[in-house]
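Figure 2 data, in text form.
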Amino acid sequence: MAYKKALGYVLAASVALAIPLAGGTSEARIQRIDICDVHFQPSDAVPVIREIPTTVIVRGDLVDTHTSIEKNAHISVDVLGRSGGGGVNTSVALKITPGAALGTGHHTVKLHYLVELSGPDVFTINVPASRVDSIEIQPNAPNYQAGTLVTITARGSGLTHAHLNSLFGPSHSALTNVQPQPTNASERDNVIRFTANVTRPLDLLSSSFTLTNIQLQDSCISNHAAGNFKLPINVTGATQVIPPIPKICVPGPTQVCP
């Protein structure tokens, strides 16, 4: 009987200690994830293109207090900054770059803390692979008279859902009357082809092509095909030598999108 009574005292004391501990403990919790000016829910797989550095803003209570990051060895993660304020005002800015050897699809990133009552914070990135390795122009000439109609072909891989950045439109005016051209079945994933009139000098780059299936707008600096190819197009008779620079989202904790 004395044993049972002592055990009762111990259990009661344990419950009494547990109640204030549970009431006074705050855990880190991801509440939102931002890329450019697009907001994702914690359960969403956020798009990060393979080989493209992407600024990912993770928001939520205490996420700025994480002590380490667990991820696949082929994913590079750098901490760009932290901010406090509570709720979605608390954030950590991460530069995430999936390496060329990383497989496509979903991969998890875990934020670890000094004290974890329910394990680390976990979010998922969805990694597509889109790459432009070459760009050709026909007719091929050292210079073009303003207004010349040309056919441009970009070749690479993972291009089924890629297209010329829509910022190359009337406001940019280096290319006008852009018209996508059909590709055959064997080319569909490897070729983008379109016709346009060249009106001003410009450089077409691998990064001039963006993805249409990843919930990021064309103006987002992180939405473009990988690759380092550059095709200079020289145009004579243009009214302006330097084309206006398309507006893009500026990466960083505040994600400025002019």
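Caption note: Residues 1-26, 241-248, 253-258 have pLDDT under 50 and may be disordered.
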